[in-house]
TrEMBL record, chain A:
Keyword vocabulary terms for this entry: ATP-binding, Nucleotide-binding, Transport
Name assigned to this protein: ABC transporter ATP-binding protein
Recorded superkingdom: Bacteria
Record PANTHER family: OSMOPROTECTANT IMPORT ATP-BINDING PROTEIN OSMV (PTHR43117:SF4)
Alphabetical list of Pfam families matching this protein: ABC_tran
GO function terms (MF aspect): ATP binding; ATP hydrolysis activity
Residue span, ABC transporter domain: 2-236
TrEMBL record, chain B:
Source species taxonomy: Bacteria, Pseudomonadati, Pseudomonadota, Alphaproteobacteria, Hyphomicrobiales
GO cellular component, one term: plasma membrane
Cellular compartments annotated: Cell membrane
Protein name as it appears in the record: ABC transporter permease
Chief subcellular location: membrane
């Protein structure tokens, strides 16, 4: 649990963050979205005290984040940034081992952790451990960056535009991997991005920032149905709303009784994917199969149309 | 096989032809002060020697003119330099009348022009071969080993330079020791002070401009003037600070020379430390802070290793510069190879000047090659960053 209470940050006359209060539930993904200069990165860096706030407090699991020396606090909080920030003169294994080494883990435990993380991120420890960051592709570098942030098993992971430097295909894969890893370690993630698509894909809750203030803090569905301001509405993009709404829930929530012809769709797919498949194949309904492969019903164009309709 | 002409090779061959045929190979003087008489290769060497040397020069010129493999060119250049080195020793033995200890034989302009042409040939071949740092250091060791072997074999004992050495053998090594102490000691002191100053300048932006400005100003003071400026304050310290005189601090002598060299050394060390630290990727620094390194851990673990090649480049500049500058220290009684240079100038004895100058050049050359090799070894090839 992260409790942000009345945080402000001023540089001279300029207020970068203005009286922000948010409560972030444990084991969730919270995405802070905003245009550049909205103060979102500053807010993130205040959580691990890379930036000291002018006023306000932050509590992690009820404990003030100033009760420890700043470097000890940061060793407990994962931190991953755009452009990965790997140390170019250290190998992949040494990079990942950074925080465990700072914490004084013994060598066997560090090695086991490095191997576990590399395997989890689909990098062969034997092949990739001894390589240097410049010998990796951008996607691999980014995965190592996140692995390094998770090495000391932090309860909280802060990410500043972690996927900003990746191309769209690798980015989508990296986002899915992140969600899987978040479930695996039950990490609380706070992620900063300017990409609304990314926010809707990853977030349990989204905080929209504008000129240093949080203008709305809500679940993706709430935000779509009831945007708090014109700014939030424009950020979401009026034309995208029905599709974003469908993207939030899975086909399982839209299954109707009945049968349909043709190629089936998995119940774990998003409703947006179902709509896309319906439109492309020119059918009125698709059969839906459950995780075991058995047909559990159908999803129809009319049913999805109702779900995609906004409040009247 | 088609024969093609190498442009630089033509120039090298022309130089070699001029040096071998038109310019004198050796100079003979009845004693060390009088004007010399020029001797061509055929006059300076016994007939068999002269024939061999001329034949080798023609062969070398041929290899230089045609487009030949770089390894062959390099090998030829080194072999020819070795032949010249032995040849000049033979000339000394041939020209000096028996039982005459006053006559002096020294290399003349033709010898130096040949040496220059061969140096050009070797340097050109080395540039094309791009040898690894280790190979370059091995080459250097081989050349130094050859020089040492020729010196100890007595082949050059008839040369005037070695005669000057023979009459000053003990002071030579004492001055060599002083020269090295001045150059390396001031470098060590400048490194010990300069790197922390560089770190401070990097962290405190306001200090950077001021300090680098002062060091820049010091760098513009001519060396002789700086030695002179230091006489007064160091003399004052020697008199007024208890114990200062006891550890050798005086207005003239080694102390002001050491301080001046130290001051000249500071700018390259401090400036390169600042540049090296500024070149550390911002993301790496941010990540290091963000995952909980203390400032000191970040400095030692991240910033220093990444800035090290640039700092080492500064140290290389200082070392080569100091080896040269330490010569001037002799003017204020600081010792070093400069002692022979200035004595030689005073006595118009060119050989004595060379006795100071040649070891200085050799030292600077050695230092440059060794440190360049070291810098290349520690500079990783990570400029190539793959895209996603």
């Amino acid at each position: 649990m992260i409790e942000i209470e009345g945080i402000s940050k001023r540089y001279g006359e300029t207020t970068v963050v203005r009286d922000v209060s948010l409560t972030i539930a444990p084991r969730t993904v919270t995405v802070i979205v905003g245009t550049s200069g909205s103060g979102k990165t500053t807010l993130l860096r205040i959580i691990n005290r890379l930036v000291e706030p002018t006023s306000g407090t932050i509590k992690l699991d009820g404990e003030d984040n100033r009760s420890l020396p700043d470097y000890e606090l940061r060793r407990r909080i994962g931190y991953a940034i755009q452009g990965h920030g790997l140390f170019p003169h250290r190998t992949v294994a040494q990079n990942i081992a950074t925080v465990p080494t700072l914490l004084g883990w013994d060598r066997a435990r560090i090695e086991a952790k490095v191997n576990e993380l590399l395997t989890l991120f689909q990098l062969d420890p034997v092949a990739f451990g001894p390589r240097y960051p410049h010998e990796l592709s951008g996607g691999q570098q980014q995965r190592v960056g996140v692995a390094r942030a998770l090495a000391a098993e932090p309860k909280v992971l802060l990410m500043d535009e972690p996927f900003g430097a990746l191309d769209p295909i690798i980015r989508a894969k990296a986002q899915d991997d992140l969600l899987a890893i978040q479930k695996h370690f039950e990490t609380t993630i706070v992620l900063v991005t300017h990409d609304m698509e990314e926010a809707f894909h990853l977030a349990d809750r989204i905080a929209v920032m504008d000129k240093g203030e949080v203008v709305q803090y809500a679940t993706p569905a709430e935000m779509l149905v009831k945007p708090a301001t014109v700014f939030v509405e424009s950020l979401i993009g009026a034309g995208e709303r029905p599709f974003r709404l469908l993207a939030i829930d899975t086909v399982a929530d839209a299954v109707e009784p009945g049968v349909a012809e043709g190629e089936a769709i998995a119940s774990s797919a998003s409703q947006r994917e179902a709509l896309s498949m319906l439109l492309w194949s020119g059918r009125k309904a698709l059969p839906v199969v459950g995780p075991d492969g058995a047909v559990i019903g159908k999803v129809s164009l009319d049913g999805l149309a109702q779900r995609a309709a906004g409040p009247t | 096989m088609q024969l093609r002409v190498d442009k630089l090779g033509v120039i090298i061959a022309a130089l070699a032809a001029y040096g071998a045929l038109l310019a004198p190979f050796a100079t003979f003087r009845a004693n060390r002060i009088v004007a010399g008489e020029a001797r061509s290769i055929s006059e300076a060497l016994p007939p068999a020697w002269a024939a061999i040397i001329l034949f080798l020069i023609i062969t070398t010129a041929g290899i230089a003119i045609l487009k030949t493999p770089s390894r062959l060119r390099l090998g030829t250049a080194f072999a020819m330099i070795a032949a010249l080195a032995l040849g000049i020793g033979a000339a000394a033995a041939h020209l000096t009348p028996p039982e005459n200890t006053y006559a002096r034989v020294s290399p003349a302009s033709g010898f130096w022009i040949l040496l220059f042409a061969l140096g050009l040939l070797a340097a050109d071949a080395l540039t094309r071969l791009r040898p690894s740092p280790l190979v370059r250091v091995l080459f250097l060791s081989a050349v130094l080993g050859f020089i040492a072997a020729v010196l100890t074999s007595g082949t050059w004992d008839g040369l005037s330079l070695l005669k000057e050495y023979a009459s000053r053998a003990d002071t030579f090594w004492a001055e060599a020791g002083k020269h090295l102490m001045l150059a390396l000691g001031s470098l060590a002191a400048a490194t010990a002070v300069g790197i922390p100053l560089g770190v401070l300048c990097h962290r405190v932006a306001r200090l950077r401009d001021g300090l680098l400005g002062v060091l820049n100003a010091i760098q513009t003071i001519p060396s002789i003037a700086l030695f002179g400026i230091l006489i007064a304050p160091l003399g004052w310290i020697a008199i007024h600070v208890p114990g200062a005189a006891a550890i050798g601090i005086r207005g003239i002598g080694t102390a002001p020379a050491f301080v001046a060299l130290f001051l000249y050394s500071l700018l390259p060390v401090v400036a390169n430390t600042v540049v090296g630290l500024a070149g550390v990727p911002r993301e790496a620094n941010d990540a290091a802070r963000g995952i909980g390194m203390t400032d000191f851990q970040r400095l030692i673990g991240i910033e220093f290793p990444l800035a090290f090649p640039v700092i080492l480049t500064g140290i290389r500049i200082v070392l080569v510069q100091n080896i040269g500058l330490a010569t001037i220290a002799a003017l204020i009684g600081g010792g070093g190879f400069g002692v022979f240079v200035f004595q030689g100038v005073g006595q118009t004895a060119m050989d004595l000047v060379l006795l100071g100058a040649v070891p200085t050049v050799l030292l600077a050359f050695t230092a440059a090659i060794v440190l360049d090799a070291l810098i290349e070894t520690v500079t990783p090839n990570r400029n190539r960053v793959q895209s996603a």
